[in-house]
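Entry for the shared binder. Reason: the reviewer on the internal report wants the predicted structure included alongside the sequence.
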Amino acid sequence: MAFWNKIKNYDTLFFSVLAFFAIYLFCSYNGVGISPDSIMYTSAARNFVAHGNLHTFNHAPIVDFPVFYPTFLGIISFITRIDPTLFGWWLDALMFASLIFCSGWIISRFEPTSHIYKWLILIAIILNPGLLQVYTYLWSETLFILEVLLFMIIFRQYMLQHTVKWLVFAAIIGAVACITRYAAVTIVGTGGLLLLLDRSLPVRKKIGHILIYGFISISLLVANLWFNALHTGTVTGPREPSITPFHKNLYYFGTVFCDWLGFTPNQYFLATPLAVIILAGFIIALVYNFYRRRLSSFENIAITFALVYGLFIVLSSTFSRYERINPRLLSPMYIPALWGYSSWALLVLKRVNNRRVRVAIAALFIAAMLGYITKIFLVDKTRYNDLIADEYGNPGYTDNDWMESEMANYLKTMDKSIFKPKVTIYSDAHEAVYFFSGMSSYLVPHKFFKKDVEKFYQKKHFYLIWFKNLENRELINLTDIKSHKQLKPIKEFGDEGGIYEYNLNSN
C-alpha cells in the first residue's frame, strides 16, 4: 500500500507530461490548427489587446461566440506580447496536460478506485482522436472541457458538505463556462438537476440553494446576451432553423460514438441503436444512483453531465441549424461518458468475493480496454502520418494547401491600394481574407435570409473576393451573383477563385 500511495500523484503527473507531448507532436509541423472559428477568436483577442474591445476583424462585437475565450487569449497575449496563433499550441498542450491531471485526480477518488483502471482510462483519454483534434486547434472547447472537470471537483465538495461557500464556487465556474461556450448551460442544468434530486437537503434549504446557484450561474450569460442584443440586435447572431430532424441528429450522435469505439463507417447502421442505448443507460444509472443515495460520487456527477449534455446537443440540433453533430461538438462528453461506462467494472469487482471470478472479470476488462486503446492508437498514428510525417499540417489556414496557394500568397503580398477606400469588400470566406491580408470584409448573405440577399443585390459598388474551394451551399454563390451583377475581374486564380469589382457607374 505504501508504494501505491507514493505514486498516487506522480503517475498522474507522468500522464500529464505524455498529454503535453502528444499535442506537441501533432502541432510540430505547422503549429496550432487555424479554422474560421479560430480566426474569429484571434481577431477579437487582438482587438482586446490593441483597443480594449472584443470586436472581430469586421469591426463588429463578437456575437456568434461568447466573450470569455477571446478575452482569455487576449489577456495571455497582453502579458506575453505573443500572438495567439504563435502561443496557441503551447496553450493547448498546457490545457490538455491540465485536463489529464484533473482526470487522474478525480479517478483517484472514485468509489472504489484502482491504479490499473486509472492508467488505462488516462491512456484512453490521451489517445482519443476527438480530444486530440480539439486540443490541436484554437477552439474554445479546449477551455470549456477543462471547466467541466473543475465544476465536477467543486460541485462534489458542495454535495459532500452542502455549504453555501462551495455552492457559490461551483456556480461561479458554471457562470464562466457559460461565457466560454453557450453549450455550458448544460453545466447549469447538471447542477440544477442534482440539486433537485438530492434527498438529503430539506425542502426550504433546497429551494434557497437552487435560487442561489441558478442566479449566479446564469448571471454572466445573461449579461453577455444582453450586451449582444443591445449592440447587434440579436442575442447569439443570426440563427437559421434546423434542417435535420431528431432521428437524424440521433443517428449523427451515434456515428460519433461509433468512431470513438473504433467502428468503421460500414458499421454505422448501429449508430441510432447505440445512441439510444447510451442515453438510456445514463438515465438508468442516474435513477439507480438516486435510489441508492449515491448522487455525490464523481461517477454520478459525470453521468449526469453526460446525459444533460448529450440530450442538449441532439435537441438543440433539431431546432437550430449549426454544424452537423461531430466529434468536436461531443468532445466535452467523452470523458464523463468513458467514466460512466467503465466505472461499473470497479463496482462489480468490489462486490465479487470469489477470487477467480474477480481475476476473470479484471482480465476481461483489461483486455477490452487494451483492445480499445490499440484501435484509437492506430487512428492517431494514421492521422500523424497524414498530417505531420507527410508534412501537410493540421487542416486549416496554415496547412500546405494554403501555404502553397497562389491566391493566399497573393493576398499576403498584394498592393491594397487596388481597393478604393469606403467601398465594401465581400467574400464567401471573410475570415480567410482577414487571415491572409489583414483586411476587413463581410460575408455574402445566406440564401435563407431573403432581405439580406435583396440588400446585397441593391449595392451599387463593391468588391468580391471569392474562394472556390471554400464555397458554402448556404450562401449565395458566384454563379448567382454573376447572374445579377456584371463583375469585373481584378485578378483570377483558376480553380482557386478570384478578386472582382462591381461598379454600377462604370457598367
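Summary line for the report: The chain is about 65% helix and 5% strand.
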